[in-house]
Design brief:
Low-confidence stretches: none
Order of helices and strands: HHHHHH
Largest sheet: none
Shape: elongated
Radius of gyration: 21 Å
Number of helices: 6
Distance between the termini: 53 Å
Helix content: 40-55%
Number of strands: 0
């Protein structure tokens, strides 16, 4: 019995710290905004593409991580500067990842400012007509 007391006290302390450090208390976590990124910041094309490869993979939502990372791996390196800017605006302008996901899978209409050739290509990619098993590509 004496041996259990220190373990019990430690569990109580962990529980107190976990309750104290809970940063989502009182926050509506069903609608989390994407951090704002300045897409108009001048950047060399190869640096922009490298950033977009990373951002396509690290969205915060697994569904978009999978769709966007495989899309970027397949198409991004062949994009022109204009197409790259369209893709940058597409993934960095919406305030919520769910909005982006619903547009891609056509559960909600795509707003006019994002309805372009990149979105058409992305929607086709998401349909996965050849039923290829998708997995995130490596970062390097």
């Amino acid at each position: 019995m004496l041996r259990l007391r220190p373990a019990f006290r430690m569990l109580q302390q962990i529980n107190r710290v976990a309750n104290f450090s809970d940063t989502t208390k009182g926050v509506d976590t069903t609608y989390m905004e994407i951090p704002v990124y300045n897409i108009d910041k001048p950047q060399p094309l190869d640096s922009r593409k490298a950033r977009l490869h990373y951002q396509s993979r690290k969205r915060g939502m697994l569904e978009n991580d999978l769709l966007l990372s495989t899309f970027a791996k397949k198409y991004l390196d062949s994009f022109t500067e204009e197409q790259t800017m369209m893709y940058d605006r597409l993934i960095n302008s919406p305030s919520n990842d769910w909005d982006l996901f619903y547009w891609i899978v056509e559960k909600q209409p795509t707003p006019k400012e994002f309805d372009n050739e990149i979105m058409v290509l992305l929607k086709k990619h998401a349909k996965n007509e050849k039923r290829v098993i998708l997995s995130q590509p490596p970062l390097h």
